[in-house]
Records
---
Amino acid sequence: MQRVCDFLKKAKTYYLATDDNGQPRVRPFGTIDLFEGKLYIQTGRKKDCYRQIKENPQIEICAVVDGDWIRVTAKAVENLAIEPEKHMLEAYPSLASMYQPGDGNTVVFSLENATATISSFTKEPVVIQW
């Protein structure tokens, strides 16, 4: 899981895919945080992304770094505790103008039942599951 987190942080921007009533929706994301043994993403409850994840928690993430790419499939599980929100927002202080822990809008999702595959054109794929 640490390797996946490091890859996504190095990429800085990854692409999150959700389902919107059968239509795939992909958007750039940048928040990724490892906290208490779980990998988290963050968004706002007011966004379509939040609604889509709540309706269908199966998500996919994709990013590219130096010719390698990662694809992560997972179930996004909302965590209502404030501690992972705090940890996430401490890691991304640039979000302070939009989000605060416990503000009713900030939401974090842990990635559960996940499979991450790191691939390239020149190496065998590496598969990481948790």
---
Amino acid sequence: MNHNDPVAISAENIASLRFTTYSFETDSLGAAQTAFYLRIVQEAAGLHAAMRGCSIMDLHAEGKTWVITRNRIEIFGYTRWNEQIHVNTWAQEPIRLHLPRIVEGYATDGSPLFRAKTLWAIIDLKNSRPLRPQEMNERIGLVKDPSRIIDMNLPRPNTDLEALHQLGTYKPRVTYLDTDRNQHINNVSYLSWVLEALPAEFRTTYKVKSADVLYQKQTFLDDELFVHTYATDENGYNEETPSLISTIVRQTGDDEEEIVFTAYTDWKKRSRF
């Protein structure tokens, strides 16, 4: 992934960027990978923060860091090789200890590709506790155009996993490049593992149309992790518009696991994008 233009920040505190869809960001049928869009969300947020002196490196020097805790993304279309993605992103008023951010992607003709509603927290590196985001709001600057303000109250899904059908379990190989500057597993790796856990035939037939992902606990290079995939019935892979729930769990004992990540994904057939 690469962005071709410098970051431009408007008088309304909206940052604009442009990305190119390279071949290594596409799948076997030539459409952009879902994880590519998540990487754009992460990169756009990071570049906007960096332009305001609030990058992870800047915050590390202050004994702080950024972490993402929630990302709800709606996908309207997938680019193909060498197509451009025009991105706008902005921050909104804090919600308790979170700084909300919107990231929107558009094709060159202006048609929407995706919209991500994200929640970010600022963490004290000494005690790993969240800090109040008001100061960071002032440094980054909030969106000024009232028409851009989007409802960012994201109710937490309440799902009884025991009432679902487990479709499969997958053990990802956690590698050195899955870690980031915070020395924990990068947020995009979680969704990549969730997708890798699915049958190839399913992924050939369907693409993600929306994902709501919750980052519940940090994980690290030496952790033993498993992906569990669930649906409301045993034919979850064969619905017209499948809905799946995936958890990533960390092995904490002989028969004990704790959930570190949950993803709610809705899908539709490739031909319908």
---
Amino acid sequence: MRRAWPLLLVVAVAVTLRLARAADPRRIVLVDELARPSLRHPLGCGDGGVDLLAVATEALLRGLLLALVVAAFSLVLGTTLGAAAGLRGGVAARALTRLCDGLQAFPSFVLALALVAAVPRPSRLHVAVVLALTAWAPFARLALAELRVIRGLAYVEAARALGAPPLQVLLRHAIPAALPTARAQLGSTASALLVSDAALAFLGLGPADGVSLGALVDQGVGTLVRAPHVLMVGAGALTLAAVTVQALADRRGV
């Protein structure tokens, strides 16, 4: 996808800065607490004197990794389920449609909030699993819609008439035909997952190490009057990550 280059550029720059900046994003140096940007700390320091450049790059990379992995998993799962149900039609298609309706009718962030809050010490794995519970539904609906047209096309009917097994028809014809439209949804889903992950961390339900975009924004809100640069770094990193991931959703890049 040609539209992936902004994301690749951001990742490359973040990795380069993280490797060049050997500072531990969790290291506390009280004497540097809320220090303004300087040659020693290009983006300044946050609570406890943590280096904001190290925290921002580490949190950005972790957020992007979680969002893209969950979105890719949801793409595969949702497209496969939607294509299989759409190819079969009838009860299977109606059942999957009702399931997707139920999942999408309930606010997914509220569900994630409730489930993560029930975990004593939530990790990134917990957050990823909770977000994946509903993220696959839009992909399934898109595949279902595509298969309503695809299953009636001549080459699909010919494959069935020649005795091709249902699994072969699914893998060779149904899923490849549904993937282009599903891929256009990938960027939007990943961007929403990135923001949801940050929102959970902002509310104190993220990983305990505090190295996340949401925790950085929360830290910035708490120190806005004394050190506005902390919020600028956190909000800027979150915005940059969300915008570059969202660029994958442009259909011209499919």
